[in-house]
Every structure is written in C-alpha cells, then in structure tokens.
Specification:
This protein has 357 residues and is an alpha/beta fold. The strands form three sheets. The protein has an eight-stranded mixed β-sheet with strand order 2-1-3-4-5-6-9-10.
Length: 357
Amino acid sequence: MNAPLKCWAAALFALSLSSVGWSASADQQKPKVTILATGGTIAGAAATGTQSGYTSGAVTIDAMLAAVPGIDKVATVKGEQVANVGSQDMSFDVLLKLAKRINEIAPGSDVNGIVITHGTDTMEESAYFLNLTVKTDKPVVMVGSMRPSTAVSADGPLNLYNAVGVAADPRAKGRGVMVVMNDQIHAAHSLTKTSTTAVETFMSPGRGLIGVASYGKNDFYNSPTWKHTSQSEFDISQVTKLPRVDVVFADVDMPADLIDASVAAGAKGIVIAGVGNGNMNKASVDAAAKAAKSGVVVVRSSRVPTGLVGRNVELDDDKLGFIASYELNPQKARVLLALALLQKRSLDDIQKLYDLY
C-alpha cells in the first residue's frame, strides 16, 4: 500500500473508532429508566384484534418493549417483572413488594427514572399508595392501557413510550408519583378513573393535569402541593401487612348493619362512601358513631366524584368522633387510613394527615 493510501486508511480507521466512541458516549449519556411490570390490560392479549374480551397479564415486559419501536432512543431501558395480574387482583401485599423494590433501586446511579406498568381498574389507588411510600425524588411513573396489546388500535405502546419519556425527563423530578395515559400527565393525589372502557378514562377533575406528553416530549404545567414520596412520613420498610380498612357505600335506605358487619369482621378503620357531603342516614350515623367509640376509625368520604368533604358541616364530627376525607375519594381515603393505622395516632393527628397528603 502506498503512503497516501496508508494515510487515508489510517484516517478512516481513526474516524471509525471516534464514531464508535461517540456512539458509546451518547448511549451512556441517555437517561436510564427501569420498568417494573405488574400486568394489567397493557400486558393483555385476546384471540383477535377486534374483540372486547381478553386476558390481563398475558404478555411479559420484554414483549411489551419489543412492541414499542424507538423507545431505546428516549432512554436506556431495562425491564423487570414484579407481578403479572389484572389490577382487580392487585393487593397490598404486591404493593408493599413493589414499593420496597422501588426504594431499593431508586438510589442507584444506574436509575434516572422508574416506570410501573399496571392495570387501570385500581391504578389510582396503587399510584396514591406509592406516592405515600416511595422515598425518592426521581420520577416514578405509572402507565397502563384501556385496550389489550393485541387490539387493532392498542393504546399501550404509545402510552409506554410517553411514560418512559416522562421518567427520563429531569423536569419530572420532585413531582411525586405520576400517571401517564392518553398523552396526559396526572398526579397520584388527584386522578380518578371515569370511564369503563374509553382511552381517555383518567381525569383530574379537581386540580387538573400536571402536564402533557406527546411522543416523548413533555410540557409541565404544575407540581402537586401535597406531601409525597421523599417528604412522606410513612415508612413501610419493615411492614409486612396492613390493617384492615373497609369501604361502606351509602345509598337510599342504607342498612346500618353493614357497618356492624365490618366491625365484627375485624376492621380497624371504615371509610364511608357517603352521599353528598359524606352523609349517611341516621341509623348508619348511629352505627358509625358506635364503631368510632369502640376504637374503629371512621372516615367520611363521598361517592360524588368532585368536591370537598368538609369537617363539621352537616354532621358534628367532633362530637361523633369522625374524620373528614377532604379531597380524597373513598378508595384513596382507605389507602391513607390503612397507612395511618400502622402506628398509634390520635383522631386529630389522623385528620391532619388528610389535609397534608
């Protein structure tokens, strides 16, 4: 090989090494996102792409990631299967395992954000539970879908892509646990499921969105004002079981023995999904007051989707020994009460929790 050709070959070889080094460097600079999979519709499968029935949790995290082209351009992603259930079968046992796993991996330098795949039926409760028990300011994002992975127009792949985009975004830090669905970013405290089947099922009617996510690009509007994650006082590191808390639904001619039955079954707390401003009929008020006097903590929430349940408004909570849930719906009020009952607290202290969290 003559000298000019040798020089050209050497230069080309050096350029190729430089290119490889640049690619490796670029890859190292990408955010690192860990996905913890728990099942749900996003991991569901059906026999055809046009049927409504399907099996939840039929697809593994590796298969889900393979169905999202370009996700590796947003972040360096790795997946881990924590559970594989429909969210109707989600339990506090699984949530404790999930929260502890997040707390275990979050401090690592190889994790910039965490995504949890989850079914939508109980996602708001799980998100709120993690919001109170996860100890990190790094983004923690829950995501699911309303259509199974085999559907003609599956919403899971883009939801997952956007969730990874939020988890990888440094601006998402410190905003508590978020839910990313249908191009929207919700706070765990505020969101609720509003439709049985529509892809726009999640809304945050009282406080609005944290922001929007569009093909990995995010626009943040605000941050939650309640205490959460690293600010939370709840420590589940040594917890293996949560106390029983029941939800009792109030309606016309509500039978008071539902409250008595919860007490007899060993409930340490009862949340009333009350009518209007957390109300119930007189027989149930009397039964709830009796339960409260026996040491069972009674929280008044509402079956109405928006508005505050105020303290000492239509019922004398001070006299009856009740707690008002303020903004929390019955299912989230139950989560907070179960965590509150892990240690001995006065009724005043428990009431303050509903204001802070």
